[in-house]
Amino acid sequence: ISVDHKVLTLIAVRLKSSRLPRKALADLSGESLIIRLTERVQQAKIPTEVIWCTSTHSQDDPLEKLASEHGISCFRGSELDVMSRFINVAEQRKASTVVRVTGDNPLTDPIMMDVMIQAHLKKGVEYTFTEDLPVGTRPEIIDLDMLKRCHQLLQDPDSSEYMTWMLNRPDHFKTQRVAAPFWEIKRPEISLTVDMEDDLRVVQAI
User: Fold this and answer.
1) Residue 143: strand pairing partners
2) Per-residue pLDDT tens over the stretch 142-192
3) Cβ distance 54 to 89 under 8 Å?
């Protein structure tokens, strides 16, 4: 991969959740869910840094404190406009490509991250996704320029929490779907995201 390509892993995380409040701090084998997720995505070899992208709301102060205790970078921005958080941090770090990970997916696949980044940069596309892996393990690779264009197209930036729906638009952007490299992980019917209490118990069991 060319050295002029700086790739960041950005984890969108907040403590506000109507279904499972403060799930990012839930216990997962003796450590918080967000730390377990971070440890996991740090195993990817291509990205240069993992950064938590949270809000400036006081309820997210514990996240900044936790990041500081673990030596993890934490960026705080708009509470609802997640896309602006990603754009701001990528511009600050002078990165042209970002890996989007959400804070309720502690089983995000780091090997697939590298596979997808390589495919993304090789093809020169703007958005790379996979639909093969279980829900809750899939990263997304996004071009910063595309993110900016998408943000400008948004009628309601506060809805940018649902970024995937806006980015996976082949009619607007150069998108690419990457297949799972191993048949064993091709299980799209499984959900491993942590949305409710039951989901958390499943991931704790795993």
Assistant:
1) 97
2) 999 999 988 887 766 666 555 665 677 777 789 999 999 999 999 999 999
3) no
Burial (0-12, 13-18, 19+ Cβ within 10 Å), 6: middle
Q: From CA 162, how far away is CA 7, in angstroms rounded? A: 22
What SS3 state is found at 142? strand
How far, in Å, CA of 176 to CA of 182, rounded?
18
CA distances from 128 to 72, 152, 159 (A): 26, 20, 21
58-96: pLDDT as tens digits: 999 999 999 999 999 999 999 888 889 999 999 999 999
DSSP 8-state class, residue 134: P
Q: pTM here?
A: 0.92
Owner of token pair 């997808």: 116
